[in-house]
Amino acid sequence: MRTVTSPAGRFATARFGTTTARLLLAKNPAGWTEALPIAEAETLVLAIDSVAADGKDVSWLWDVDFEQLAGRTIVATGPRATDLSVRLTYAGVEHRVEPDLAKALADHPEPVDVITTYTPFQKLRKMGGLA
User: Fold this and answer.
1) Do residues 22 and 35 lie in contact, with contact meaning Cβ atoms separated by under 8 Å?
2) How far from each other are the two terminal CA atoms of the chain, in whole angstroms?
3) CA dihedral sign, ordered 91, 77, 59, 30
4) Residue 57 appears among annotated catalytic residues
5) Rounded to two decimals, what is the model's pTM?
6) Are 3 and 114 in contact (CB under 8 A)?
7) pLDDT at residue 131 above 90?
Protein backbone atom coordinates (compact mmCIF):
# COMPACT_ATOMS: atom_id res chain seq x y z
CA MET A 1 0.00 0.00 0.00
CA ARG A 2 2.80 2.46 0.79
CA THR A 3 4.15 2.21 -2.73
CA VAL A 4 0.87 3.13 -4.44
CA THR A 5 0.96 6.86 -5.13
CA SER A 6 -1.44 7.55 -8.00
CA PRO A 7 -3.57 4.63 -9.21
CA ALA A 8 -4.41 5.27 -12.89
CA GLY A 9 -3.43 8.92 -12.48
CA ARG A 10 -5.56 9.64 -9.43
CA PHE A 11 -3.77 12.07 -7.10
CA ALA A 12 -0.93 12.39 -9.63
CA THR A 13 0.80 15.73 -10.02
CA ALA A 14 1.53 17.05 -13.51
CA ARG A 15 2.79 20.22 -15.16
CA PHE A 16 0.59 22.14 -17.56
CA GLY A 17 2.81 24.90 -18.89
CA THR A 18 3.74 26.93 -15.81
CA THR A 19 1.03 25.39 -13.65
CA THR A 20 1.50 22.42 -11.35
CA ALA A 21 -1.72 20.51 -10.75
CA ARG A 22 -2.81 17.55 -8.66
CA LEU A 23 -5.52 15.50 -10.38
CA LEU A 24 -8.49 14.21 -8.41
CA LEU A 25 -11.11 12.04 -10.10
CA ALA A 26 -14.71 12.34 -8.91
CA LYS A 27 -17.27 10.39 -10.90
CA ASN A 28 -20.44 10.95 -8.87
CA PRO A 29 -21.80 13.01 -5.96
CA ALA A 30 -20.21 10.68 -3.38
CA GLY A 31 -16.84 11.08 -5.10
CA TRP A 32 -17.17 14.86 -5.15
CA THR A 33 -18.20 14.86 -1.50
CA GLU A 34 -14.97 13.03 -0.65
CA ALA A 35 -12.73 14.98 -3.05
CA LEU A 36 -13.69 18.52 -2.05
CA PRO A 37 -12.35 18.34 1.53
CA ILE A 38 -9.02 16.80 0.46
CA ALA A 39 -8.39 19.47 -2.17
CA GLU A 40 -5.80 21.52 -0.31
CA ALA A 41 -4.74 24.11 -2.89
CA GLU A 42 -6.11 27.64 -2.65
CA THR A 43 -7.08 27.42 -6.33
CA LEU A 44 -9.38 24.66 -7.52
CA VAL A 45 -10.13 23.88 -11.13
CA LEU A 46 -13.39 21.97 -11.43
CA ALA A 47 -13.89 20.16 -14.74
CA ILE A 48 -17.26 18.76 -15.80
CA ASP A 49 -18.37 16.88 -18.90
CA SER A 50 -21.46 14.84 -19.66
CA VAL A 51 -20.66 12.28 -22.32
CA ALA A 52 -21.57 8.64 -21.71
CA ALA A 53 -18.50 7.89 -19.54
CA ASP A 54 -19.35 10.82 -17.25
CA GLY A 55 -23.09 10.34 -17.16
CA LYS A 56 -25.20 12.56 -19.37
CA ASP A 57 -27.36 14.00 -16.58
CA VAL A 58 -25.60 16.70 -14.54
CA SER A 59 -28.46 17.27 -12.10
CA TRP A 60 -26.22 15.55 -9.52
CA LEU A 61 -24.37 18.87 -9.19
CA TRP A 62 -27.16 19.90 -6.81
CA ASP A 63 -26.29 16.98 -4.51
CA VAL A 64 -22.75 18.25 -3.87
CA ASP A 65 -21.91 20.69 -1.05
CA PHE A 66 -20.07 23.27 -3.14
CA GLU A 67 -20.83 25.87 -0.46
CA GLN A 68 -17.68 24.74 1.36
CA LEU A 69 -15.59 26.30 -1.43
CA ALA A 70 -16.59 29.88 -0.60
CA GLY A 71 -13.58 32.16 -0.28
CA ARG A 72 -11.29 30.08 -2.50
CA THR A 73 -10.24 30.71 -6.09
CA ILE A 74 -12.44 28.52 -8.29
CA VAL A 75 -12.29 27.94 -12.04
CA ALA A 76 -15.16 26.05 -13.71
CA THR A 77 -14.14 24.33 -16.92
CA GLY A 78 -15.14 21.68 -19.42
CA PRO A 79 -18.09 21.33 -21.80
CA ARG A 80 -20.58 21.68 -18.92
CA ALA A 81 -18.81 24.56 -17.19
CA THR A 82 -21.88 26.78 -17.44
CA ASP A 83 -24.01 24.18 -15.62
CA LEU A 84 -21.40 24.07 -12.89
CA SER A 85 -21.33 27.87 -12.85
CA VAL A 86 -25.06 28.01 -12.12
CA ARG A 87 -24.63 25.60 -9.21
CA LEU A 88 -21.64 27.55 -7.84
CA THR A 89 -23.59 30.80 -8.11
CA TYR A 90 -26.44 29.33 -6.05
CA ALA A 91 -23.85 28.07 -3.56
CA GLY A 92 -22.52 31.62 -3.16
CA VAL A 93 -19.09 30.62 -4.51
CA GLU A 94 -17.28 33.23 -6.57
CA HIS A 95 -15.69 31.68 -9.61
CA ARG A 96 -14.70 32.23 -13.20
CA VAL A 97 -15.75 30.16 -16.17
CA GLU A 98 -13.23 28.99 -18.76
CA PRO A 99 -14.69 26.19 -20.91
CA ASP A 100 -11.29 25.37 -22.46
CA LEU A 101 -9.45 22.94 -20.20
CA ALA A 102 -5.95 24.07 -21.24
CA LYS A 103 -6.79 27.74 -20.69
CA ALA A 104 -8.36 26.97 -17.31
CA LEU A 105 -5.03 25.53 -16.19
CA ALA A 106 -2.86 28.28 -17.64
CA ASP A 107 -0.72 30.64 -15.60
CA HIS A 108 -1.49 29.77 -11.98
CA PRO A 109 1.51 30.87 -9.89
CA GLU A 110 0.79 28.36 -7.10
CA PRO A 111 -0.05 24.66 -7.40
CA VAL A 112 -3.71 23.91 -8.04
CA ASP A 113 -5.96 20.95 -7.39
CA VAL A 114 -8.15 19.76 -10.24
CA ILE A 115 -11.32 17.84 -9.46
CA THR A 116 -12.80 16.35 -12.57
CA THR A 117 -15.24 13.89 -14.02
CA TYR A 118 -13.93 10.96 -16.04
CA THR A 119 -13.61 12.38 -19.57
CA PRO A 120 -11.71 15.58 -18.63
CA PHE A 121 -9.59 13.47 -16.26
CA GLN A 122 -8.43 11.31 -19.16
CA LYS A 123 -7.68 14.41 -21.26
CA LEU A 124 -5.65 15.86 -18.40
CA ARG A 125 -3.68 12.64 -17.97
CA LYS A 126 -2.65 12.88 -21.63
CA MET A 127 -1.98 16.62 -21.51
CA GLY A 128 0.18 16.16 -18.41
CA GLY A 129 2.15 13.23 -19.82
CA LEU A 130 0.65 10.73 -17.38
CA ALA A 131 -1.00 8.45 -19.94
Assistant:
1) no
2) 22
3) negative
4) yes
5) 0.89
6) no
7) no
Q: Give the separation between CA 20 and CA 42, rounded to whole angstroms.
A: 13
User: What are the DSSP calls for 20-61, one per residue?
Assistant: EEEEEE--SHHHHHHHHHH--SSEEEEE---STTT-S--GGG
- In this prediction, residue 2 carries a pLDDT of 61
Burial class, 46, CB count within 10 angstroms (exposed 0-12 / middle 13-18 / buried 19+): buried
Secondary structure (3-state) at 117 = coil
Which residue in 49, 57, 65, 100 is the catalytic one? 57
> What pLDDT, on the 0 to 100 scale, is given for residue 13?
85
**The predicted structure's pLDDT at residue 4:** 46
